[in-house]
Amino acid sequence: MTKEELIQGIASGDSRTLSKAITLAESTLAEKRDLALEVIAHFGPQDDTYRIGITGTPGAGKSTFIEAIGIKLLQDPTRKIAVLSIDPSSGKTHGSILGDKTRMNKLSAHERAYIRPTSSGSQLGGLAKNTRLAMLLCEAAGYNTILIESVGVGQGETEVAQLTDLFTLVLNPGGGDELQGIKRGIMEMADIIVINKADGDAERQANLTAKEYSMALHLMPTSTPFSIGSNSGWIPKVITASAITNKGIDVFWEKAFDFEKTVSQNSWKETHRKEQMHYWARKSVQDLLLSKLDHYEKAIVKGLEEGKLPEEIAKEIVE
Amino acid sequence: MTKEELIQGIASGDSRTLSKAITLAESTLAEKRDLALEVIAHFGPQDDTYRIGITGTPGAGKSTFIEAIGIKLLQDPTRKIAVLSIDPSSGKTHGSILGDKTRMNKLSAHERAYIRPTSSGSQLGGLAKNTRLAMLLCEAAGYNTILIESVGVGQGETEVAQLTDLFTLVLNPGGGDELQGIKRGIMEMADIIVINKADGDAERQANLTAKEYSMALHLMPTSTPFSIGSNSGWIPKVITASAITNKGIDVFWEKAFDFEKTVSQNSWKETHRKEQMHYWARKSVQDLLLSKLDHYEKAIVKGLEEGKLPEEIAKEIVE
Question: Which among B274, B277, B314 has CB closest to A310?
């Protein structure tokens, strides 16, 4: 497809063109990536979208929760939802936490929903970077609500905070966050904590867990990390939810839109997105610099053979 | 001091000149560092030295052990010993694990011993890199035995393996390596494991611990990590020691020289040092590349203001 065809297809909201553009963005071939970047640059930033991160260990019921909140939101005819994933394990197996799309039956069948796992490609630190490009393409295609799913165990969960406006943590009833295999520091990043599976026998336990987290959150600073110098002005909320009984789904959106209203009014959302852009620009420069390392391998070996010191070799090569 | 004065002082084994040269190497000023590098380059590599890494958590008795083995080795009049340290905590406090020199009373008073903690300066990843330069300067000054002390908890212990020929792990009697706060993977790096403080009531426990480690080691591969593609051909040994009763000090040197004989004869020592040089050359190039990042800050901000994508900015800046 030509650049013009891609732009036209995306502008008309065609999901097949969107998928093709995302595949280009994930490509390891520079010319393909560049084509995708040109398409993204054509559309420019979409400031009126809502980017929501949803982190939780496998087994916390993220997929059913995402399906439930997605279906709920789509009752609003102005909403178009894209679900993307950051999964550090997908690089190894070429699988993904979203690979099994059947887990989101209803959502994936909906005409105003788009579901796509991100491939890391073989790019250095490419996972969240690729998700970012996929997100920008989805926004260009008119998806105004982006849900980014990540497992809270690797590096992805800290980078998901660099992609999204709202950070949601989905937990099982019972057990602390460390017991649930969530990395230290993740809880402090959450704007909304969802104690999931609050149904049947587990409901009482879920309520108890929610109470514990509420108390723990009151001991923490209210600023969102990774937004150095700014403060979202939002006090984190803990809710219970169940996709089966549809409990907490309304409450989630109520809190999520409260959050959006707060951070739009105090202009934190705008500031935060600017800081995120700065993060990704620095990261892009850093990754490009480090990608040079292998190109220098021959010069390094030659310098060593000539008996030069590592520091001399580095200076000669880089300067 | 001029370059010539530094070279002359070091060639004559003057420890005050050596200290000055190491301070230059640790400097954050490029011209000072460059002067130290020129001095190091003047002397070239000293292939006949023996570089010994000694890792263990604070409290394992590394200092008393080092003093004991140092004093013992200095009975050989051809030996000159330099003790250097890699301590990740020293950057914060400007202190060091070796700062309290009184812990090595006898050794520091000996005319053929030189003791010096390494300062990280403010250099990116500068700690082990600075220790490496200090080591090369000590070798140039005629110190043929280098003991490099590190706490096995941070990043230092993996880099100490990139500096030394022999990797020694000093442990307390009782408790596994993880119980003792040693990072996973360190045990597998050890060529000699010393169960220290094997005196009085603890002797029985030390023997038991030694037996357990011996058994555990038999389940592990015999190659030293970080020497990808080569194999030292050495089977790791576990010994017990006590600086107080002088137990195990002879045995340590017996094993240590067995090791050196083995890896000299099968030329692993030479190969390993070449691989280490390659590691430091790559690291130097990498650090120098990353040090550019801050220089690009203005260009990054300008690109963002112009509404460019992070990937575009990176490409424009780096290429």
Answer: B277
Residues sharing a CB contact under 8 Å with residue B4, sequence separation 6 or more, in sequence order: none
Of residues B37, B281, B317, nearest to A285 (C-beta) = B317
Task: Give the number of other Cβ atoms within 10 Å of residue B198's Cβ.
Answer: 24
Instruction: For residue A292, give the nearest of B44, B281, B289 by CB distance.
Output: B289
CB contact under 8 A, A289 and B292: yes
Q: Does the pLDDT of residue B86 top 70, yes or no?
A: yes
Cα A24 from chain centre: 19
CA torsion, ordered B271, B274, B278, B279, to nearest 10 deg: 70
Q: Name the minimum distance, in Å, from the CA of B4 to any CA of chain A.
A: 19
Rounded to the nearest 10 degrees, what angle do helices B15-26 and B3-11 cross at? 130
Residues of A in contact with B308 (CB under 8 A): 41
Q: What is the ipTM of this complex?
A: 0.82
CA distance A134 to chain B (A): 14
Radius of gyration of chain A (CA): 21
Please name the residue ranges forming H helices in B195-248.
Answer: 202-217
Q: Across the interface, do A285 and B309 touch by the CB < 8 Å criterion? A: no
pLDDT above 60 (res B251): yes
Q: How far is CA A200 from the centre of its chain?
A: 31
Total number of residues shown for chain B: 319
The pLDDT tens digits for A250-293 are: 999 999 999 999 999 999 999 999 999 999 999 999 888 888 88
**Cβ contacts (< 8 Å) between B309 and chain A: which residues?**
37, 40-41
Contacts 24+ apart (CB under 8 A), B99-106: B103/B63, B103/B64, B103/B67, B104/B63, B104/B66, B104/B67, B104/B70, B105/B67, B106/B67, B106/B71
Residue B146 pairs in a beta bridge with: B51, B82
The C-alpha atoms of residue B104 and residue B95 are separated, in whole angstroms, by 16
